[in-house]
Amino acid sequence: MWSSNGGGGVGVVGNGPSPEHILHSVPPIVATEMQQLIDEMRLQDFDSIRFATYRAACKLRFIQQKTKVHLVDIWNMIEAFRENGLNALPLHTVIKTSRAELLLTTVFHNLNKRLVASQHVDTDVSISLLLAFLLGAYDKQNTGRLTVFSIKVALATLCAGKLVDKLRYIFSQIADSNGLMDHIKFTDFLQQVLSLTTAVFEAPTFGFSESAVTQCFHKDDKVSLNVFLDTFLSDPCPPCIMWLPLLHRMAAVSNVYHPVVCDACQVRSFTGFRYKCQRCANYQLCQSCFWRGRTSQNHSNEHEMKEYSSYKSPAKQLVHSIHKSLQCIPASSSGDANIDILNTTGVPIGKPTRPLNLNNIVPATPTTIRRQHAATSSADWPTSPVLLPGQASHGGVIDDEHKLIARYAAKLSGRADYPLSNGRSMNSSMIEDERTLIAQLEEENSMMVREMARLESQTTSDDGLAGLRDRKMELEEKMFEMQQRRRELMMQLEHLMAQLNTGPQPTGGVSSASLSQLPFASDQQLTGVNSNVANAFRAGSLPATSLQGDLLHAADQITTNMSDLVRQLDLAQAEDNGVTINGF
């Protein structure tokens, strides 16, 4: 409801800082853009609005729309902070105008990537206007520098998005390591956010002061996130910040259409808020006329007005009124036999006058038939009989369910009929059948486990046999190669012995010329005798009398190698035979 004071303080135009003072505090580079914003804001005639809260919100909404920052939501703004490295800097770090301009360039270029080509914004104009407004609001000393915290607060406040998301982000910036609000940082935040209203000449009502801090929290209060949100989202919120939720409400209703004639300016339809008088019959005003105090007929600004942020057609209003009226009618009269019954919580439970017959919808089941039979049989007895131990009730719901389960189990087991008696014999037979079935299942399970173990052992033995076969083939190939080498060496030895026996026998030694002319005396042809034969036939290296000893030593080594190979083959064959016997 709105009374004569409009629910907000009435700001006096001209008491705040003058436009000339703000322009003097702005660097000359951006003074032109700031002057352009101020001139266009004057043309909107916002200063004629009677209520300071609406006046401040309208001016900041104009800044939002002029700079196109209302198209960027809070999450994209936070992402831009991260991309430009602002999260890694302390809050009170001072950055140059060039870095702030780079941040705004990232914001608006990413915005154009998300929009279709026909809706692209002029990034140069938006960057220059928004940078000029930020410098006019925070650069009072004309230094061309801004703090990281002021940039974050201003852009997070002016961008689009839910107020609760913005407040959560602000709290993350001013909270300590324990998750509680730091009062010094909160004071700095309040000073930064109220600098926005000061920049649009609303300092008399929404300027920063020590009393504004105490309006929100006391110094000794331990403020958590929930307390912080409850304080700023409550109705009413602290007076110094009342324009902030209104700014978001104005953004939410900017496209709400009201097909209603304004009784003051006679416009046939309008958007935004709609106000209806609580005294005059069907007297409605648009937001522009109500904010500026325009009236007609017998209406007065002293009358209470109700604010509407949506529109319902008369037909919908009539249906809604009828629905509310019908809810007030009692379900039955006092003389009716069907009296409402109150449950334990005091909520009336109406007794239906006519029960529903669902026989044609839900087919009768054995459960329902037995329940009906039990109901008819129990009606003949005033009280249910006392059951002896071991007996079951014939009309109980649990017994019916047990019977159905037992019949279904009998059907599955292959029995055509199932006795409907409830004696001990039926229970004992069922138990014996179940035990027999369980024993059969356990026996089958054990057989399956043994079969699986046998298959696993067979698979393991097959793998071992395959490995042994491969090893045997390798050894056989190696033995064949050794036999070939032995045959070649023996032939070479026989040839050498023949040469030595037929040739002349010098007394002192073998000359180097005669030895070098032997056909198999080269190193390349005698490499298989472990260099003993080669050393024996090198020119001038050994006397002729030691050749026979060297040849015999080489032959012994060949014999030793062959015996080792044969031993390995025998061992491999024995292992193969042993695995085969164990596997089968």
From TrEMBL:
InterPro entries membership: Distrobrevin (IPR017432), EF-hand-dom_pair (IPR011992), EF-hand_dom_typ1 (IPR015153), EF-hand_dom_typ2 (IPR015154), KCMF1/Dystrophin (IPR050774), Znf_ZZ (IPR000433), Znf_ZZ_sf (IPR043145)
Pfam annotation, one family: ZZ
MF-aspect GO terms: acetylcholine transmembrane transporter activity; cytoskeletal protein binding; zinc ion binding
Main location: cytoplasm
A GO BP annotation: sarcomere organization
Keyword NADP appears in the UniProt entry: no
Family of the protein in this entry: Belongs to the dystrophin family. Dystrobrevin subfamily.
Protein name: Dystrobrevin
Annotated source species: Caenorhabditis briggsae
